[in-house]
Amino acid sequence: MLDELRPIVVDLLAEDFHERAHTLYDELREQSPVALVELPEQPGRGFWMVTGYAAAEAALRDARLANDPRTLLSPAQRAARAAAQLPGAPNTMLLSDPPEHTRLRRIAQRAFTPRSVTALRPTVVRHAERLLDQADKAARDGDGTVDLLHTYAYPLSLAALGEILGFPEAWHPGLEVLAVRAATASTPLSAPDPELRAQLEGYARDLILLKRDNPADDLVSRLVHPASGDDTLSNSELMAMIGLLMAAGFETSASLIASATASLLTHPAQWAALRDDPELAAPTVEETMRYWGPVESATVRYAVEPFELGGRRIRTGDRVLVFPAAANRDPSHVTDPHRFDIHRNPRPHLGFSGGIHNCVGAALARTEGRIGLNTLIARWPDLRLATDPTELRWRPGMGLRGLRRLPVRP
Ligand code: HEM
User: Fold this and answer.
1) Which of 143, 298, 300, 332 has the fewest beta carbons closer than 10 A?
2) Coil, strand, or helix at residue 24?
């Protein structure tokens, strides 16, 4: 497989990857929107890296690319695994394919419909106001600055997710530390860290126990006490579902709020435009998703049969890694792609992925982003960065893009 081509060596796991990512994407895309690459630390294990918009969109929609690597096993291999009772990692919806994916997604989706998310808006506004009260006091009591990421963006996203899943506020600090460590340590190309995984499973188990005995009006209570047999999950599916929602459901939204704020503060005319017209929060969120989207690369896909993608021959078993971050800045899709511009003519982006695995929480994330920005700008219309913009740093960890800190001066 892949032997007739020589892979390009790309250092995706470098500490400073996010500082250099867009230069790399532009160089690769110029050669081919679907390039054969390998990591320096994984020689001989090439994969297809997708940086072009058209190829990325096609790949995310293609049923010949599976999310579950076990799809590639032959019936004999599957039978052998079953006979040996090998521990089958319980699949999350993200790492499964139809029909399992369809069933798991249907069960979770109800909590994230536009209607449910609209009903949550007043609560999100209340949390945003409360957190800004606290941040205001912290700034006054301290040196006049606050780290907006940790005083506002994370707590706001955690509060919104906590309302949906039903976990207590006392868990917020621990979950925040865990999510930042996981986002830094894990990439779609590395095995999950067993310690972090165990911690996440611990939270999921505790939440299941809490809701088993004290059901309330939240998603986890409904999963633990399903209304019909169709909605019943096995124990391992339940753990996997809650773990996925906790892992995917707030770190990304927090990064969206922080990256949008940083982009606006480094483009003061656009900050002023949003201050004068709150309706611009929606295009600001979409432009941030395109320009500094929190998810840099999708999860690995596996070809289950040969096909062509972006002019390249993909063979059975090949791995394909789509980079929404690269696709969203493809000059054949967006004019002047490296310019942040909330007034641009909107074009579709892949920041929430595409195809059947498109983000189930997209409506919630957009709502948090819009409310987060509008509440912030109404409270602190003259907000400034409390650091030189060149000092802002991205966290390591290739799969997700998030700032390490966002020091601001109200
Ligand atoms: C700005 C915030 C967010 C971004 C950028 C984001 C991005 C994404 C992306 C790119 C995927 C697909 C990955 C792939 O195709 O391999 C995805 C899937 C998913 N996201 Fe999000 N997400 C965000 C917020 C959320 C929230 C708030 C939740 C839930 C509370 C959530 C839950 C999920 C789930 C469950 C999946 C798997 C969907 C499936 O496999 O069918 N996400 N997200």
Assistant:
1) 143
2) helix
Closest residue by Cα to residue 189 from 298, 94, 295, 292: 298
Report pLDDT digits (tens) over 363-393: 999 999 999 999 999 999 999 999 999 999 9
Compute, in angstroms, the gap from residue 364 CA to the centroid of ligand 1.
10
% of the chain exceeding 90 in pLDDT: 85
Q: How far apart are the first and last CA of the chain?
A: 56
The rounded distance, in Å, linking the Cα atoms of 295 and 40 is: 23
- For ligand 1, atom 22, name the residue with the nearest CA: 359
pLDDT of residue 87: 47
Give the dihedral of Cα atoms 243, 249, 251, 252; nearest 10 deg.
130
Q: Does residue 327 carry a catalytic annotation?
A: no
Residue 10 pLDDT exceeds 70 = yes
In a 10 Å sphere around its CB, with 0-12 CB exposed, 13-18 middle and 19+ buried, how is residue 167 labelled? buried
Strand order through the sheet with 301-303: 8-9, 34-38, 47-50, 319-322, 301-303, 65-66
For a pocket test of ligand 1, which of 295, 359, 373 has the largest count of ligand atoms closer than 8 A to its C-beta?
359
Do residues 135 and 152 touch, judged by C-beta distance below 8 A? yes
